[in-house]
Specification:
By secondary structure, this protein is mainly α. The protein has 13 helices and two strands. The longest helix has 31 residues, at 185-215. It is globular. The structure holds zinc ion (ZN).
Length: 335
């Protein structure tokens, strides 16, 4: 057990540092990273400093020393995230539901699949926090990995593309599943991943349009649309809608904490979508079945449309409010 714990912590630490290096690489030439060139003489940092450096950086040309803490923070946070997530998934069975019963091997494959997802999310969160950039190549790679993994395995979904609880057979395990889902695993994996991608992207695209129409300018970037496409491709359409539905709450809580403690404000929405997706993955069992019973909503078309319309409206209004709220100075909130 201590061996597994150490391995998880260590691999998370390394993943977090690589994510920071990748974010620096993406944002090269942008001064906000402080890791790609010397603060004083603008000489480029070495490859070792970019991918391995922890804290103190020293310029090889002029000898200037400066400190960059965010790569260390990234390493520590990802180490914790990976360890806690692995425990939630395997120890607490946080995604175990009656409808989805993958073969044991596939159940174990879920962890690496989701770790790839968490790693790519970290890269995009870092670039978004540092410079409001969500890099297209990271997103494209993520979508490819998500769709390919889902199709090849055919058994990585945390919920099937469609589950009809009205047709539940009492006494049997779970509801009726269409024959094609049982007989064509790979096709179902492909449909599941693509479905999540399309629903996630469309939803944010609509929110962007609606909030733009209310505010006169979109409260979300086009990067948020592609980010949600990647999130949807990894988690499926029902969890994607749940993540979008809780994102405003995440944004208000986190935005307020950051605003009051540091006086800074993150107008980027991407990190909140990412955090919400991780929350949904970590609590899926309780969202889908008891106590939240979202399964009843997601097997009934009128309920789905109602939920979607409600979330769209709430998100657009909250985003508008959040924008105005974040634009006011921190001092007026502290008083
Ligand atoms: Zn220098």
């Amino acid at each position: 057990m201590p061996m597994i714990l150490m391995t998880l912590l260590f691999s998370g630490f390394v993943l977090g540092r690589i994510a920071a290096g990748w974010a620096t690489h993406v944002l090269t030439g942008n001064s906000s990273t402080k890791l790609d060139r010397c603060e004083r003489c603008q000489a480029p940092c070495s490859i070792r400093q970019r991918w391995l450096g922890m804290g103190a950086v020293r310029c090889k040309v002029c000898g200037t020393r400066w400190t960059v803490r965010w790569p260390v923070v990234s390493s520590l946070l990802v180490a914790m995230l990976v360890t806690v997530y692995a425990w939630l998934l395997t120890g607490l069975d946080c995604q175990k539901i009656a409808e989805v019963q993958p073969a044991t091997a596939m159940h174990l494959l879920r962890l690496p699949y989701h770790l790839v997802f968490l790693f790519l999310l970290t890269v995009t969160v870092l670039t978004d926090l540092l410079d409001y950039v969500i890099p297209d190549n990271v997103i494209m790679l993520g979508i490819f990995a998500a769709v390919a993994g889902a199709t090849v395995s055919g058994d990585l979904q945390i919920i099937h593309v469609w589950v009809n609880w009205d047709a539940q057979v009492p006494g049997l395990h779970g509801p009726y599943l269409p024959e094609w889902m049982k007989n064509h695993h790979h096709l179902h994996g492909l449909a599941w991943s693509l479905g999540g991608m399309i629903v996630g992207a469309t939803f944010i695209w609509l929110v962007r349009g609606i909030s733009g129409w209310i505010l006169g300018q979109p409260a979300m970037g086009s990067g948020d649309v592609t980010l949600m496409a990647m999130i949807g491709a990894f988690i499926g359409w029902q969890p994607a809608i749940c993540a979008i539905a809780i994102a405003p709450v995440t944004a208000i809580v986190a935005g307020l904490v950051v605003r009051v403690t540091s006086g800074r404000s993150f107008v980027a929405f991407g990190p909140y979508l990412a955090v919400s997706a991780v929350i949904v993955l970590s609590t899926w069992r309780w969202i889908w079945a008891e106590p939240l019973l979202m399964r009843d909503v997601f097997s009934h078309w009128p309920s789905i449309l109602g939920l979607a319309a409600g979330s769209l409206a709430a998100l657009a209004v909250l985003l508008g409010g959040l924008r105005i709220f974040l634009a006011t100075p921190a001092e007026s909130i502290r008083r």
